[in-house]
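Q: I'm building a small set of examples for a reading group on sequence design. Run inverse folding on the following structure and report the sequence directly after it, with nothing in between.
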């Protein structure tokens, strides 16, 4: 299987249109179609459903796309790292992170590394935990900052960096905004905004369980948002109360108040993780700047 075939497949999967994909690749449609057919024959499965009106990925195609993109990303990074090595340029460090890391300890860490280890060239990618785990294991990332929950982190060295807690964020004119602390009973019948469950199923289930286990009338859980900015915008628009990491709610928030839940929800750990067999000099230098406990 050649990288060119994977690039052709990824282009068609993105455009879902052979002519547009061919134009992006600067080739004609005929060799592109032939390359996709050859790849499907090699894999012994259909990657696309084709009709005269539409092109869409099959279930096998959707599964293969994630793997193909990981291979292509790794190939691109290998090429860049080789170019840097041959040119005697900076050491490359590919870093994955989540929103809570960005809003808490990570900026200070990055700043210190830039000031004290200027030869390290850092690239930052915001990714969910599941994506980071896959990319760390296949070598597409050097180090990640993630919430492990129930993810498989075998083969990775980890360090506890930060312990975050969830708080309630609600419109300033909401009836509960006048309360000092809000209990689980107070949330009965309220619209509570959570992130989409597929973002991190284990943490989502933990939050829902914590608010429903006591046999009280449950809140109405909404899963309309996929990131913290969207959740805050929904609160500002009056769609309900949001459960959010405290690290993502710092600074002034227009027409929004923060409240603690009593008793508090279980905290969520953020860890640093890197492959145990990663002997990169850049990784070894970088982890010296990390806060938290020793590797676990």
């Amino acid at each position: 299987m050649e990288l060119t075939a994977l690039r052709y497949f990824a282009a068609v999967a993105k455009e879902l249109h052979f002519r547009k994909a061919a134009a992006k690749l600067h080739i004609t449609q005929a060799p592109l179609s032939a390359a996709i057919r050859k790849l499907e024959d090699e894999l012994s499965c259909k990657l696309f459903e084709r009709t005269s009106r539409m092109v869409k990925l099959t279930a096998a195609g959707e599964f293969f796309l994630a793997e193909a993109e990981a291979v292509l990303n790794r190939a691109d990074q290998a090429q860049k790292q080789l170019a840097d090595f041959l040119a005697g340029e900076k050491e490359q460090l590919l870093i994955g992170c989540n929103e809570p890391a960005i809003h808490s300890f990570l900026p200070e860490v990055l700043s210190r590394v830039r000031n004290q280890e200027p030869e390290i060239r850092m690239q930052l990618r915001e990714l969910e935990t599941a994506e980071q785990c896959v990319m760390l294991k296949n070598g597409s990332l050097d180090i990640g900052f993630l919430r492990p929950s129930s993810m498989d982190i075998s083969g990775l060295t980890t360090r506890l960096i930060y312990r975050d807690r969830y708080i309630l964020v609600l419109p300033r004119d909401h009836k509960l905004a006048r309360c000092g602390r809000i209990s689980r009973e107070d949330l009965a019948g309220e619209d509570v905004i959570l992130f989409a469950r597929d973002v991190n199923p284990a943490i989502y289930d933990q939050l829902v369980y914590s608010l429903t286990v006591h046999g009280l009338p449950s809140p109405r859980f909404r899963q309309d948002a996929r990131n913290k900015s969207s959740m805050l915008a929904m609160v500002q628009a009056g769609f309900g109360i949001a459960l959010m990491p405290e690290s993502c709610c710092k600074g002034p928030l227009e027409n929004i108040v923060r409240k603690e839940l009593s008793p508090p929800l279980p905290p969520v750990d953020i860890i640093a993780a890197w492959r145990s067999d990663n002997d990169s000099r850049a990784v070894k230098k970088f982890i010296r700047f990390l806060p938290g406990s020793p590797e676990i």
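The mean pLDDT is 87.
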